[in-house]
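INTERNAL AUDIT FORM
Audit reference: QA-55
Scope: verify that the stored structure record matches its stored sequence.
Auditor: D.O.
Record contents follow.
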Amino acid sequence: MSASLGRIYALVLRHIYIWRSSVMRLVDSIYWPAVQMVMWGFLTQFLLPQTSYVAQAAGVLLSGLLLWEVVVRGNLSLSIAFLEEMWSRNLGHLFVSPIRSWELATGIIIAALLRTLLGMVPVSLLAWAFFGYSVYSLGLPLIAFFAILQMFSWSIGLAMSGLVMRVGQSAESFAWAAVFILMPVSGVYYPVSVLPDWLQVIAWALPTSYVFEGMRAILTDNVVHWDLLAIAFGLSVVYLVAGFQVFQWFFRLSRRAGSLLGQGE
């Protein structure tokens, strides 16, 4: 076990050294969430005197944006951590070492978590500085929201990384775009009840829908729906296990096909 921890630590340390050598990688983690936050912040300022719903829950749009960015950044950070290994043609080197596939997956998950925190914490502080709104006013449920959304984003990132490992860089665009197809059915900015019945069935199968419904309940009614959080947590665990199994499946296929050594730019 200690040997596994050492290999995971070494993998995370490699990514930290990459970030230290390239400030632009860290700037990229903050840039897009900051641009989105500023745009939605000004829209909220515009709607405040005109829309009673937004006036009652001034932070509903910014909270939706910031929590959705947790999903996007989690997926992108994990995909980038994996693609860094492909771009540098390092997969072959990694897998001739004693490292196992689950250790690689754990290492890039930890690197993705650190990169997401490095991007989202400054942006949440900017939202407070620019618009006087603190996402931390959600209280303790914010920690649960963050953990649930991170686990769900990792499940997507692992599945997409496995696909890229097997198919090659022609599937790289899926690693960036896969998460966005879920945004319309996650109820980020509107209740799930506005969706058609058949889409609501899909929405309630995603942990994101429960998180955003729970977020709105706190901001508009000052009520914490722990039952929604429990369902979302259970679903996230199921998706994370499924995402890891997909990653493992693609890894085994790639190893049998001998394609691990040929991946890279």
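Auditor finding: record pair retrieved intact. The chain has eleven helices and no strands.
Action required: none
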